[in-house]
Write a structure and sequence with these properties.
heterotetramer; A: 157 residues; alpha+beta; B: alpha+beta; 3 helices; 7 strands
C-alpha cells in the first residue's frame, strides 16, 4: 500500500506499475484507477484553477488509515493513493486512487468507497481561483465531525 | 503548546501556527475560547464550523490537553 | 471514443492520454480505468495463461456499440476499450476500459457497466492453458442469447 | 454463402470457415441442420448452446438468409 501527498504531478504508468508490483500480483485479476482532475467551472461559473492546503502528517496518516480500512473491507490485494496539493491549473491531475483485487467488483467498490471517504474525511482544503480572486470551497456535508469520526475511532482500536 | 490553524481559519487570523501556555486540565474548548479572545478576526474565524485535532487525531472539545500537545483547528474538509 | 482489438500489449499512459485528449476534456473531472489481468489460477487450480479468440469485424462493432450505449446512459465525456486476443501469459493485461465524466459516480458506474456487458455480450471466447492442455471456459449465464440481444436490437434503431 | 465457426465449434469441426450453397428462402436453422448432417463432429459441435449471427449481427434461427450473407455459429461468449 502507498499513500502520498505531493506538489508534483504524477505519472499514470508509474503509479499503475507500482500498484501491480506486489507479491499477490498473480492473483490480481482486476485493477481499477480513479483520477480526479480540475474542472474549468463550478456552480458559479468559470474558474482558473484551484489551490489545495493540507495538514502535513495528519493528512498522510488519514490516507493510510483509509487504505487499510478499504483493503480489509473489500478483499484488496493492493491499493494506493496520491493526492496533490498547492496551486493546480484547470485540467491538472488532483488525486489518484488505485485498487487491485481478484474480482472486479471488489476493485470498483473499493475505489469508489475510498473517494467517497476521502472527500468527507481527509484533512485537505480547497479554494477556487477566478482571476485574482480566491474562494474557499464550502463543505457539502452537514455534520463533518461525524463524517470524520472514523479517524478517531480507528486509532483507538 | 503548539497550535496550528488551516484554510479559512489560517487566512482570517493571518496565523499559521503559534505557541501558547495552557493551564493544567485545559480542554480543547478552553484553548479555542482563549484564542477567540485575541480579537475580532479570531472570534470570527473560530466561532462556528470548526473541527479540532490533538496530536493529529480528530477529537472533540472536551479533550484535556497539555503543554506537550499539538492542537489544530480547521474547517470541514473539501479535498479530493 | 475508441474501441480496438489487438494482439499487442497496451500502455496505461498512452491510453489514459488518448482518453483525456478530447474537446470536452476541460469538463472531465473524473477518469476511471479498469484493467483485467490474467490470474494464475481458476476454480480447478493453477493455470499457465489463457488464449482469446474473436470475430474480426463483429467484435469491434459490438465494442463500439457498447461504448455508445454507455456514453448515452451515464453522461460520459469520453470512453474507450482495448481488448487483447491471442495467447496471454499469467499477469498479462487482457482488457482496458476507460471512462471520463464530469462527476465520479458516472465514470465509476459506466466502467463497471461496460465490463459487465462486455463479459456477457461481446464475441470473445477464452480457453485456459495448463501445461499442454487447453480447456474452453464455460459461459456463466444461463441464457446467453438473451444477454446478447441488445446487439440485435440496437442495430435496428 | 460464407459460414464462419468459432471457438469449440471451430475446433471440434476442424473448420474455421466454408462456402456452401443454400436454397432460396433458407433459414439460419436450415443452414445449421445442413452442417450437422456433415458428420458426427458437426452434429456434436452444433447441437446445443449455439448462437448465430448473420452479417455480423446476432440473430435467431428463423432468419432467412441468402447466398450473399455471411453466417456465423459460435458458443456463448466468455471474454473480458
Amino acid at each position: 500500500m502507498f499513500a502520498r501527498v505531493s506538489e508534483a504531478d504524477f505519472s499514470q504508468q508509474a503509479l499503475y506499475d507500482e500498484l501491480c508490483e506486489h507479491n499477490q500480483a498473480s492473483q490480481s485479476g482486476a485493477v481499477v484507477t480513479f483520477t480526479g482532475r480540475v474542472r474549468d467551472y463550478n456552480a458559479g461559473g468559470a474558474i482558473d484553477g484551484i489551490e489545495l492546503e493540507y495538514y502535513p502528517g495528519m493528512t498522510e496518516s488519514a490516507l493510510q488509515q483509509l487504505l487499510e480500512q478499504a483493503t480489509a473491507r473489500f478483499k484488496l490485494t493492493n491499493a494506493g493513493i496520491v493526492h496533490r496539493v498547492g496551486r493546480l491549473p484547470n485540467q491538472a491531475q488532483i488525486v489518484w486512487v488505485g485498487t487491485c483485487a481478484a474480482h472486479r467488483q471488489d476493485a470498483f467498490s473499493a475505489a469508489s468507497y475510498i473517494m467517497d471517504m476521502l472527500k468527507q474525511s481527509v484533512p485537505i482544503w480547497k479554494k477556487e481561483w477566478a482571476g485574482d480572486t480566491s474562494t474557499w470551497v464550502a463543505a457539502k456535508g452537514t455534520d463533518s465531525e461525524a463524517a470524520m469520526r472514523w479517524l478517531t475511532d480507528d486509532k483507538d482500536k | 503548546m503548539k497550535v496550528k490553524l488551516f484554510a479559512q481559519i489560517r487566512e482570517v487570523t493571518g496565523t499559521e501556527s503559534l505557541e501558547m501556555a495552557v493551564p493544567d486540565d485545559a480542554t480543547i474548548e478552553g484553548v479555542r475560547q482563549a484564542l477567540m479572545a485575541k480579537g475580532p478576526q479570531w472570534q470570527q474565524a473560530l466561532s462556528a464550523n470548526v473541527l479540532c485535532a490533538c496530536n493529529q487525531t480528530l477529537c472533540d472539545g472536551n479533550m484535556v490537553v497539555s503543554e506537550q500537545d499539538e492542537v489544530a483547528f480547521f474547517p470541514p474538509v473539501t479535498g479530493g
